[in-house]
TrEMBL record:
GO terms for MF: Hsp70 protein binding; transmembrane transporter binding; zinc ion binding
Pfam families: zf-B_box, zf-RING_UBOX
GO BP field: positive regulation of membrane repolarization during ventricular cardiac muscle cell action potential; regulation of cardiac muscle contraction; regulation of heart looping
Protein name, per record: RING finger protein 207
Keyword Cell division among UniProt keywords: no
Region (Disordered): 567-625
Limits of the B box-type domain: 93-145
Organism of derivation: Hirundo rustica rustica
Lineage, uppermost ranks: Eukaryota, Metazoa, Chordata, Craniata, Vertebrata
């Protein structure tokens, strides 16, 4: 089962502390023995994976990702990079015994031990002076024991000549004979060992920065998912307390969403150890490998890091954390087309009155009501809809009256008008409700989740709001134009028209209220827009990877080359005290410096300043995961 190795996650720090050692198998919790690399870049011992393959596929015990197994062994290929680190760690931890006096040397005393390459035996300091003092041992090659382990790959195994070149085309080191045997076109891709080492360190540094960015995004995604899981739980508790009759359906939604989030969380949890292990692996590899070993295995490491970054990672929630339990309202909306009704807000009448804001004292002679429209705090944008004579408030009987009027089935002009009005109003109200839900979702993401909201989304909402304003104004004008037609009919039969007039005024009120809601929606959206842009700018400064490229890559490269050339020319025109630093090799501008007192070269700041603005740049051998 994917993720079954881990216990329930408490925090990202607990996960990193539990499985952060890059040389310990996650299954047997022992140092790696013949580590095998799966397609998901998880490593396990060969003995731990033996017998798990089925039909040529091996499912990862950590994340469940299937890996194709080739060959009759039923095991993935051996990870040479990790095997090198395991061997280097084992060599450094073993006690060394002097070949002459059998004196054991601990790990702390390795600097005092020597190794005779001619004899092939380790020697302590006293034995080196005593046994190799004679003239016959004068030509023996004696080196420090710690240096001996890093000089193994200095000679070509084919010609027994030292490596002097590196082929950027084949990613392999060359001796003088290998270089002579190459074709003329391939020789153009050969550079010296020092240059290849510096270029490799720079490329590895870029790959490590990409993995660090992915690690940061993964941690943020884990925190976001855990926050959304908590939000789902809180929402479930509120819904359970409020609507007991719908608790069972809500619980089903809660379990499904929590399961989906936990599956995605398990996927990201299995990704985080991989990123941690590879970052620690890079640091250990740079500190353990010499230049030859780096050029032998470094490009495999860089290629692996690039592939890990390019793998599809689900860093964003696949669904929202909102639990919907308004099934009664949904059922009522489904019945509206059958009953020819439109959803309205429930209106509560005042005590002793006919409707909200309408009392018996407001009645005029002749049975007509003097009803005043209470305008909300958000003013409408159209003067035509906000000015004019006294607007009349709809009563609480408006919805029932409309239903009864349409149920009579009379073919009257007002009944036909009501049918057309209901269809148009339902469409406008649905679109307004969609915009309201969208703004509410953006407001929640901005305040609770602190998510980055694109300004294009805000512009799109404002554009839709303006379009809705035009449509509502046009529909309001069309309904207003029908007043003269209906007034002629109302003069003939007042008993029937009294109900129709009340419905008509309610329709105008609904449109005005809808218009005002849209105006409030536009006002709120305009108020949120500056904060969105401000947060977006801060987010881009804190995370340069979110910035959109302003120039093509070729133009950026040319600009960097010009800056680097200018920085190399400036020291030549400086004072005589700085001539010593200017006469150094240009290659030293890219060499990693360990001395904290010397200022870092300008060329290094120019080439890496854009990637590491606001943070201290690390040398290739000081990578901190």
């Amino acid at each position: 089962m994917a993720g079954s190795i881990f216990s329930p996650l408490g925090s990202c720090s607990e996960l990193e502390k539990a499985n952060c050692h890059p040389l310990v198998c996650l299954l047997c919790h022992e140092p790696y023995q013949h580590p095998c690399l799966l397609d998901c870049y998880h490593n396990f011992c060969a003995s731990c994976l033996r017998g798990r393959a089925s039909d040529g596929r091996l499912r990862c015990p950590l994340c469940g990702h299937p890996s194709v197994v080739r060959g009759g062994t039923g095991l993935p290929p051996v990870d040479r990079l990790l095997q090198f680190l395991v061997d280097s760690s084992a060599d450094s931890e073993e006690d060394v015994q002097c070949a002459n006096c059998d004196r054991c040397c601990t790990k702390a005393e390795l600097d005092t031990m020597y190794f005779c390459n001619t004899c092939g035996q380790p020697l302590c300091a006293p034995c080196r002076e005593e046994t190799h003092r004679a003239r016959m041992f004068a030509r023996h090659e004696i080196v420090s024991l710690s240096k001996r382990t890093k000089d193994i790959h200095k000679k070509c195994p084919l010609h027994e000549e030292p490596y002097i070149m590196f082929s950027t085309e084949k990613k392999s080191m060359l001796c003088i004979n290998c270089f002579r045997d190459m074709q003329g076109e391939s020789r153009a891709h050969c550079i010296d060992i020092e240059t290849a080492y510096m270029q490799g360190c720079q490329r590895l540094d870029q790959a490590v920065m990409a993995v660090k960015e992915l690690q940061t995004s993964t941690r943020e995604a884990i925190v976001l998912l855990k926050a959304m899981i908590e939000e789902v739980r809180n929402s479930a508790s509120e819904e359970e307390a409020a609507i007991n009759s719908l608790f069972s359906r809500m619980q089903v939604q809660h379990e499904e969403k929590e399961k989906a989030f936990k599956e995605q969380l398990a996927h990201l949890a299995s990704l985080l150890p991989t990123l941690q292990v590879h970052l620690v692996t890079c640091s250990a590899f740079l500190s353990s490998a010499n230049k030859a070993e780096f050029l032998d295995l470094g490009y495999q490491l860089m290629e692996r890091l690039q592939r890990i970054v390019k793998l599809p990672h689900r860093l964003r929630p696949a669904q929202t954390s909102k639990i919907n339990s308004e099934y009664q309202a949904e059922f009522a909306r489904c019945l509206e087309p059958l009953l020819m009704l439109s959803p309205r807000r429930s209106m509560v009448g005042s005590a002793g009155g006919i409707g909200p804001g309408i009392t018996g004292t407001n009645m005029l002679p002749g049975g007509q009501c003097s009803k005043t429209l209470m305008v909300p705090s958000c003013p409408p944008t159209s003067d035509k809809m906000s000015t004019g004579p006294m607007m009349k408030k709809p009563t609480m009987h408006r919805y029932i009256s409309t239903k009864v009027l349409l149920a009579e089935g009379r073919e009257t002009p007002f009944a036909e008008h009501c049918r057309n009005y209901e269809n148009t109003y339902r469409m406008l109200q649905t679109e307004i409700q969609g915009l309201k839900d969208q703004v509410q979702e953006l407001h929640r993401d901005l305040t609770k989740h602190h998510s980055l909201i694109k300004s294009e989304i805000m512009s799109e909402i404002l554009q839709k709001s303006l379009q809705m304003d035009v449509q509502i104004a046009a529909h309001y004008s069309a309904v207003e134009m029908m007043r003269s037609v209906f007034e002629e009919v109302w003069e003939e039969t007042y008993q029937r028209v009294a109900n129709e007039q009340e419905i008509y005024e309610a329709q105008l009120h609904d449109l005005l209220q809808l218009r005002q809601e849209n105006s409030c929606l536009s006002t709120i959206t305009k108020q949120i827009a500056p904060y969105v842009r401000s947060i977006a700018k801060v987010k881009e400064r804190l995370e340069p990877r979110l910035q959109e490229p302003q120039e093509p890559k070729e133009e950026q490269a040319q600009m960097l080359l010009k800056i680097c050339d200018n920085n190399e020319v400036e020291p030549r025109d400086a004072s005589p005290g700085s001539n010593k630093g200017a006469s150094a090799s240009p290659r030293e501008g890219f060499m990693p410096k360990d001395t904290s007192g010397d200022p870092s070269p300008k060329s290094k700041d120019c080439c890496r300043g854009q990637q590491k603005s606001g943070a201290e740049s690390a040398t290739p051998k000081e990578l901190v995961p």
